[in-house]
Amino acid sequence: MNEITRRRFITNAAKSYLGVTVLPMLGSTIASPAFAKSTANGAGKADHVIFLNMAGGMSHIDTFDPKPNKKEIQGPVESIATAADGIQITQYLPETAKVMNHACVINSMTSKQGAHEQGQYMLHRSYAMRGTISHPSLGAWVNKLKGRKNPDIPGFVSIGGSPDQASGGFFGARYSGVPLGRPDQGLKNSTRAHTCSEDDFNRRLALADTLNKNFHDQFSHPTIKEYDNLYEEAIRLMQSKDLKAFDINKEPETLKNDYGKNHFGQGCLLARRLVEHGVRFVEVTLGGWDTHYDNFTSVEARCQILDIAYATLIKDLHSRGLLQNTLVVLATEFGRSPEIVAEHQNGRDHYPAAYSCVLAGGGIKGGTSYGRTDSKGLRVKDKPVEPKQLNATIAHALGIPTNEKIHSPSGRPFTIGNNSSPVVEIFA
Length: 428
What we know:
Helices cover 32% and strands 14% of the residues. By secondary structure, the chain is α/β, with parallel strands linked by helices. The chain has a single domain, classed as Alkaline Phosphatase, subunit A. The N terminus is likely disordered. It holds the Pfam family DUF1501.
């Protein structure tokens, strides 16, 4: 039985017999023993990850790797100083500039994947797409190897992104991320249906237990046990006091405004609530970075959303004492061409050879940069970092051994960073 068929079977059965939908819980995993933390080279200081996915290919030149002395490359965008000595970013990110003392900019990202689907796949899974296998996403790896911190709510949540990017791959559905389309709608289908009273609900549970026991007496298979676990998790979630973590309406209106009244801003606020309640890995997606046409207008509009949300998230986590154990990753699948395409209303094309990402909190050495591109942003000049190495670095921050091998159903060994070493120099 494949993953989609299993999910459909469990969901329909739960609706019929229990009056609930357990689909949101399919992103979870039973709490598993976490690896012993190591503090060597900054490892293990993070308990949580907030992964901000800039889908579409964010221009490095117009954000974190400006080239102020090359107007033919930089165009009309000016660079500005930041709270980190010696680090400049562009004028589109004034609020982010104020919190760069908490962050490390990696300006030497490089990839061979120049198409969106393949680039996003590599960013999330560390491996190239293959027709014969579905690799687990980074959040699924964290769920499996790190285990849940809070056993009552999902360990991996994806906000505003494609469910494909939150796939458990060959780990199975129970390690997938819970996909939330809108941060203001909470976790749907996680309460008992109003048409089903508590007495009726308990009666149905007892009936289901009887049916399950009879079935298990006849058939013994690990997949059958998985169904039982999912039922138990769904019931535990419904009764958990931490279900309120998904309700951003419990936040002050002023703070909601500070994050920005848009899906990404509110998604960042929800991400903070979720890590506060023990969710290990939260991804929030901001799309719209595919700026083949009219790059400068489009990037400015995207940056207005990103700038306010990112800066508020960093400040909010810091003020609550959460930044030290929460790694905030801002990443994209590739950059945009340093060449400005005049015939496309000053657009920029796909450019995987060189681009940027940013890491903050979770043991990262703030106010620093790592790697660099040449004077035109065309090539990585020093300390190249591939997406798989970025993922190994995230695992290192969490104290997950990057050489831990997990075998696929066909027996092939895989690691969280595709056998890459973490960038340990960026840790404090």
